Amino acid sequence: MGQGLWRVVRNQQLHQDFGDQCYLEQEGEGQRMEPTQGEHLAARRGMPHCQVPGSDISHLLHVRKGKGDQGFIDLEMLPPELSITILSYLNATDLCLASCVWQGLGSDEYLWQGLCKSTWGHCSIYNRRVPIGFSYRKLYMQLDEGSLTFNANALEGIGYFMSKGILVDHPQEIAKFIFYTRTLNWKMLRMYLDERRDVLDELVTLHNFSNQFLPNALRDFFRHIHAPEERGEYLETLITKFSHRFCACNTTLVQQLGLSPGERRHESRQDAVYVLCYSLILLSIDLTSPHVKNKMSKREFIRNTRRAAQNISEDFVGHLYDNIYLIGHVAA
């Protein structure tokens, strides 16, 4: 709680210098400047025009410290938007404790709705008409509990969401929930997707790789669907699905890879992307691993890659090497 309050104060510390002066003088003149928009706004709110929220909070904190008061100021003394900003830094447990103290903010459904949708971007329940008496505060607690359950056991976590009516038992809905949620453990998520290939298929289709350079698209893909630590059938499946999706999103792929539509079938283009993806993963390991002493040169990468995919232009393969060398691993 204290960290959240001090964080807001720190971010607004630049306004503190204006707290002790009510008039601004022009350089070299003793004339008063025209009132600013902020001064008009402060006047309408019944505040002195020299006060700003940042210096106001800092002043309250220092006054309490000087008096020897324990704890922090009551959030109800602050403007509502600042109180909500402070509360947004708290986790579920601290929010429950805070809501017991500040009843007004604790019962603000707009606050809880925003916290739900900022952490869990998609839930099936968002698209349904909520019944009378529905509480976003209760939903937040259920989402937090379900996420903790998922991070311990993925199948039980998804089952919990379905039992509470938060998710519909449909691969597309589950895929959207995973795609827009950042609180799920990636190891549990990888195990779940390995078992639920139907959800994996829907998750892949949510990616839009249009006009993306191949290494950047691969990084975006592995940000949502983490690559396994070892080579195997699951990694091959991921690269195959990525290749199909990348080709579907990029109509200029034929020109980028040096293939003409009349010479090769669409499957050949996907095979070329598949080869390039494997080459990029191997190059990433080679350039980033401290155990590899003799790093692969650009000339060697071009030669090795074009042996496996002869129709790919040398310049394109060279740009791939530069991207990995400058930006880093595609599956980190």
Could you give a short description of this structure?
The chain is an all-alpha fold. It is built from 18 helices and no strands. It has helices at about 1-10, 35-45, 55-65, 80-85, 90-100, 105, 110-120, 135-150, 155-165, 170-180, 185-195, 195-205, 215-225, 235-250, 255, 265-290, 300-310, 315-325.
How would you describe what is shown here?
The protein is an all-alpha fold and 332 residues long. It is built from 18 helices and no strands. The protein has helices spanning 2-11, 37-44, 53-67, 80-87, 92-101, 103-106, 109-119, 136-152, 154-163, 171-179, 186-195, 197-205, 214-224, 233-249, 253-256, 266-288, 298-308, 314-327. Helix 8 packs antiparallel against helix 9 (154-163), helix 10 (171-179) crosses helix 12 and helix 17 (298-308) crosses helix 18. The longest helix is centred in the C-terminal third of the chain and has 23 residues, at 266-288. The protein is elongated. It starts with a helix and ends in a 5-residue tail after the last helix. The relative contact order is 0.06. The model is unreliable at 1-55 and 260-265 (pLDDT under 50).
